[in-house]
Amino acid sequence: MPAFHLRPAALSAALVVLAASCSGALAQKKYDTGATDTEIKIGNIMPYSGPASAYGVIGTTEARYFQKINAEGGINGRKINFISYDDAYSPPKTVEQARKLVESDEVLFIFNSLGTPPNSAIHKYMNSKKVPQLFVATGATKWNDPKDFPWTMGWQPNYQSEGRIYAKYLLKEKPGAKIAVLYQNDDYGKDYLKGLKDGLGAKAASMIVAEESYETTEPTIDNHIVKLKSTGADVFFDVTTPKFAAQAIKKAAEIDWKALHLLNNVSASVGSVIKPAGYENAQGVISAHYLKDTTDPQWNNDPGMKQYLDFMNKDFPEGDKLDNGTITGYGVAQTLVQVLKQCGNDLTRENIMKQAANLKNFRTEVLLPGIYINTGPDDFAPISQLQLMRFKGERWELFGDVISGDVGG
Asked: Domain range for residue 199?
């Protein structure tokens, strides 16, 4: 005989009470525009055409990853409806596409829109509308400003942090360096330059011998490279997007400029930059990274890399596995899936931002070992660590330790 006995009516009442107390918030569904019992509508803006079109593959990878998630049943039973538009890396077009996504398509949020000038153009609009501008695909430092812009968050390490990491390296390895800088004439380029100068500190004035900016509308940057070589600089800090980075590597080799070439991470792709520039021209180039590289044999038996390659083979077979854009798109899409899982049935815009700011030691397994994603209500910079790497043969070789480039540190 059991110690207690409930009549069927009492038993069902007890179960109802138990279910209510256990599921509480879980059972309560909360939706904003763009979310239903069956769908999560997500907007995206990419430069599928124009001067930064090499980055378009990031959007294509994300679309394929979400298709894979949908085929597996979606997130908490909901399918992702991913709407991605081309802005050709033109800020006025970005504004147009953002308005279309928010006001006409009525998406829940905009995810991983690419580029510093394009995102700057919609920064105030997204925040005034209180629509998340989540995991923007740019490392500008200003995306980490939860006090003034609580609806905008970055994902990748910020450019000032990366600039500081190169400065630390130069102060240690080449303290007498004469540095020539080429940078894109916008917030993206200026952020890197600021990071380098802050990292060099008092020595910046004597070490930086030339600063040259270029516009994305220029067909070629060859004349800038020739001008920088003439300064006698022995270090070339190259802050360019893929098309111009490939030109810079090629031209420097052509005019036999033997300076140590520091290349910003956003153009470190073997597939879209190094290969077109010529492997022989890129020997010894130094950059920094936070993601694993498919060309590096140390990841041949790595479970995370195997998962990524399995995804590429099955879900994006025509995609270029050598392109940093594919592994970036995969990693950021996985991070978003984690945020949406954490949201449960509360798919309000406020909860999207709350959960994005509540990532604790999260890892997508394409991150380098020792690198974790952490956010908080006052910390909208998910990744702040990088590792230096040098190009040798046909691939990047990592060296040194994982370095934190916190702007405060």
From this structure: 159-289+389-404
